[in-house]
Design brief:
By secondary structure, the chain is an alpha+beta fold. The chain has five helices and eight strands.
């Protein structure tokens, strides 16, 4: 039916309210509510079942723990009953306690003590023991050994006032040796006294010098009027002198370093020989058996 040309049509084909198959639209809200209710019921059923299962497991574990504790208590009690009583245990055997001596060991001997007095200085003494070998090497400098001499007439081995000084201080002997290198010669003389005190006195009074010793390829040197270098030192009961110069007779000056070096080397060698003598005797005394 039309209520005028061009007016709207109600319920005809193409209208939103027209259902060509005769069906109705479902109630979607109601369906959603029903589905949610079913989901909630399933969740509560699952939670309840989990709680029941957890309780059952806890009960089983508790029962097992109680059973184990009971067994352990019985085992511990049995083990304790089987241990021996204190009276049955063996006594501890007494052990000797270590003992230490309260006496401090003696200090090692001093090498100088064995070259400071004739009472201790008993090792053989000669030109061969004091000046061994046929040369002396100090660093890279080698000196050939010439003549050697030993005398108990100490004054005969000295020049000038030194002879009387040695004699007045009871010099026992003088041992000399000459060393040379490159036209320079040095004689070293070692005067031996009874004690260190006498040696120091002679050293302090020393004047003049030791007499040079020629021979064995070394010509006469350092005799008047030649000017030579002289030194005096001591260690223990030994006083050692040197006199050095040119074998040509040339006078020595402060610029002649070779003469000074040679004299210092030979004096050092004499000192080392005396020191080695003391060390050897001190070492022998330290290792000697103690008398009962």
């Amino acid at each position: 039916m039309s209520f005028g040309q061009g007016g709207p049509s109600w319920g005809g084909p193409g209208s939103p309210d027209h259902d060509p198959h005769g069906t109705q639209t479902p109630d979607w809200a109601a369906l959603a509510d029903a589905s949610a209710a079913r989901t909630r019921r399933k969740r509560w059923l699952m939670i309840g079942g989990g709680v029941l299962a957890t309780g059952a497991i806890a009960a089983i574990v508790a029962t097992a723990v109680v059973s184990m504790n009971g067994g352990n208590d019985r085992g511990t009690q049995n083990t304790a009953n089987e241990l021996p009583t204190p009276t049955d245990l063996p006594d501890r055997s007494p052990e000797a306690e270590p003992t230490f001596s309260s006496v401090e060991p003696l200090p090692p001997p001093n090498p100088k003590d064995y070259v400071s007095s004739a009472d201790k200085d008993k090792a053989p003494l000669s030109a061969g023991t004091l000046f061994p070998g046929d040369k002396v090497t100090m660093s890279d400098r080698a000196y050939a050994k010439g003549a050697t001499a030993r005398t108990t007439n100490c004054a005969a081995a000295a020049q000038g006032a030194l002879g009387s000084i040695l004699a007045s201080n009871s010099c026992d002997q003088v041992i000399r040796a000459t060393y040379s290198k490159g036209g320079v010669a040095v004689t070293v003389g070692v005067a031996v006294f009874e004690t260190e005190a006498l040696a120091l006195k002679a050293k302090d009074q020393a004047k003049g010098g030791i007499a040079s010793l020629s021979g064995a390829g070394v010509p006469t040197f350092c005799r008047a009027p030649s000017v030579c270098r002289k030194t005096t030192n001591s260690y223990g009961r030994y006083v050692y002198f040197t006199v050095g110069g040119f074998t040509s007779g040339k006078n020595v000056t402060t610029s002649d370093k070779d003469v000074f070096t040679t004299g210092d080397d030979i004096a050092e060698f004499a000192f080392r020989q005396i020191l080695a003598r003391g060390r050897a005797q001190a070492s022998a005394a330290a290792t000697a058996p103690v008398a009962p």
